[in-house]
């Protein structure tokens, strides 16, 4: 191996700024879509089912294609795949912005999912090829994690401004177009092309099996969130498991597989997938309860609730920055990761103390601690996974990392979301005043927003009593989810302590060029 200067130059830093723009815009798109979906439903006269597809089809498609796109990026080149994805994202965004029917909007959101599946695997793969000094690479990956989070938080605010100016809800999809065009112009000059020169031909069968392994599981879990456990959701999850088994069998039978299963056999790498899943399970499982409580339980205006919620991403960025600096000073990655889980656990424990009269402050303290710890954990997990994989497998490694997050998100909304809804509904049923009519009580059991709306129409003291019961039930739902989340995060800390205890202090830069070709011990060439 020849010696080389691996310290990043100004060109790599400028390239990172381009990649950070991509990640931020992807987050903005998600946040803006959540803001506009109700107005879109009204304008396009969408059914409840169509509304759900507008909300979820992006995630379904993206999650299903992550593994396939990661393998494709390692083969055709990560910059090329990123540029194709950016062009597709901009085009699909324009179609969505001028959609005149629900069907066209759903199709455009699906196309955005296809393009979105190229972004994070390509970004992480390029960072692996651009930044060889561990501290610089870790900081770059941390910046992308923060970018997605900040984008998701400010997306509703930017979307709200566009809605106010244009009065056209589909205009929110125009937000990402200028940035993606800028990527197409600047990326050609600032981003290097990184590919595996010995990559095999792209295996369409394996790609199809990977989609079949992830898509039905995510669909089944999200269906459980909206409609409860039923034959369709169970069948979808089982079908995903069958496709996953077929995918593994095929990878083991190929001399040059789409995904080198050595990555999954490596304890640090496989633990990273589990840790990503656990973090996102808690983070996304709690998020819907957060916004519902701020607006209904704490009585904040939606715009004020959005501004209050900005505290979480700000704290997360500060925490990630601090962890990156500590790692640069020689603190072990595993130690910092465990610390992230500990801080997130404190946040969930704080939520167990929320009551109907607490207001927004304690909820936001808990949410901010959760965001800070989760941000540190996911940033360090992503860096560890990308660093563990051979350089020519970096995009595939990034895809597996993101797939763990998507599965964790879907599972969290299905499990923790269902737990929170069940606790809320049971509490309202038990404590509602006898004077509340049965039809009103049925509506009140659904959500706290529906309960408060129904309470406002009740005469006498029954309305005030029902509103108080709903607020108490919402707080108790947060309490129970806080306990479940804390237990999950403690399990994550244990996994991190066992699997990451030997991670080195990456204070010194790498001095040798990584090998090219297949580095896994399972090579059969």
From TrEMBL:
TM region(s), chain numbering: 52-69, 81-100, 106-127, 139-165, 171-190, 202-221, 227-249, 269-291, 303-327, 334-354, 360-386, 477-498
Entry keyword Transmembrane: yes
GO molecular function: transmembrane transporter activity
Organism encoding this protein: Nonomuraea mesophila
CDD domains, per the entry: MFS_MMR_MDR_like
Stretches the record annotates as Disordered: 502-525
Keyword Cell membrane found: yes
Protein name per its UniProtKB record: MFS transporter
One Gene Ontology cellular component annotation held by this UniProt entry: plasma membrane
Pfam families: MFS_1 (PF07690)
Domain Major facilitator superfamily (MFS) profile, chain residue ranges per copy: 15-503
Chief place where the protein resides: membrane
Signal peptide (residue range): none
Protein topology in the membrane: Multi-pass membrane protein
Protein localization: Cell membrane
The entry's keywords: Cell membrane, Membrane, Transmembrane, Transmembrane helix, Transport
């Amino acid at each position: 191996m020849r010696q080389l200067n691996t310290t990043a130059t100004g060109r790599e830093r400028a390239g990172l700024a381009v990649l950070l723009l991509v990640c931020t815009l992807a987050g903005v798109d998600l946040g803006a879509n959540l803001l506009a979906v109700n107005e879109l439903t009204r304008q396009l006269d969408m059914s409840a089912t169509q509304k759900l597809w507008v909300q979820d089809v992006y995630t379904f498609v993206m999650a299903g294609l992550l593994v396939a796109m990661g393998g494709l990026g390692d083969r055709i080149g990560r910059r090329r795949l990123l540029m194709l994805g950016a062009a597709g994202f901009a085009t699909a965004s324009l179609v969505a912005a001028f959609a005149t029917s629900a069907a066209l909007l759903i199709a455009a959101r699906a196309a955005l999912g296809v393009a979105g599946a190229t972004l994070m695997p390509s970004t992480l793969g390029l960072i692996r090829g651009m930044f060889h000094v561990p501290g610089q690479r870790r900081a770059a990956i941390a910046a992308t994690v923060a970018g997605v989070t900040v984008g998701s938080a400010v997306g509703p605010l930017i979307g709200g401004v566009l809605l106010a100016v244009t009065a056209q809800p589909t205009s929110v999809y125009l937000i990402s177009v200028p940035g993606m065009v800028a990527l197409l112009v600047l990326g050609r000059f600032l981003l290097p092309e990184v590919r595996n020169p010995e990559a095999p031909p792209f295996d369409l069968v394996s790609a199809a099996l990977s989609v079949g392994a992830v898509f039905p599981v995510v669909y089944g879990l999200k269906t459980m969130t909206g409609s409860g456990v039923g034959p369709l959701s169970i069948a979808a999850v089982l079908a995903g498991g069958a496709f996953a088994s077929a995918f593994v069998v095929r990878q083991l039978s190929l001399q040059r597989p789409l995904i080198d299963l050595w990555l999954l056999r490596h304890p640090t790498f496989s633990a990273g997938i589990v840790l990503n899943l656990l973090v996102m399970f808690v983070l996304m499982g709690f998020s819907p309860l957060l916004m519902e409580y701020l607006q209904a339980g704490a009585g904040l205006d939606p715009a004020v609730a959005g501004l209050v919620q900005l505290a979480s991403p700000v704290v997360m960025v500060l925490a990630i920055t601090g962890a990156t600096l500590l790692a640069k000073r020689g603190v072990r990655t595993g130690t910092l990761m465990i610390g992230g889980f500990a801080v997130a656990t404190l946040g969930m424990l704080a939520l167990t103390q929320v009551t109907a009269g607490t207001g927004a402050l304690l909820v936001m303290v808990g949410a901010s601690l959760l965001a800070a710890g989760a941000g540190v954990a996911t940033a360090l997990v992503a860096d560890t996974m990308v660093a563990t994989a051979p350089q020519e497998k970096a995009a595939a490694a990034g895809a597996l990392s993101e797939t763990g997050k998507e599965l964790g998100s879907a599972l969290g909304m299905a499990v923790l979301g269902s737990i929170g809804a069940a606790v809320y509904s049971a509490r309202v049923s038990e404590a509602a005043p006898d004077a509340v009519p049965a039809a009103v009580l049925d509506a009140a059991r659904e959500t706290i927003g529906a309960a408060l709306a129904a309470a406002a129409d009740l005469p006498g003291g029954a309305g005030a009593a029902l509103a108080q019961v709903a607020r108490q039930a919402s707080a108790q739902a947060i309490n129970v989810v806080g306990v479940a989340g804390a237990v999950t995060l403690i399990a994550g800390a244990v996994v991190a302590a066992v699997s990451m205890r030997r991670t080195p202090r990456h204070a010194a830069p790498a001095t040798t060029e990584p090998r090219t070709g297949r580095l896994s011990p399972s090579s059969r060439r």
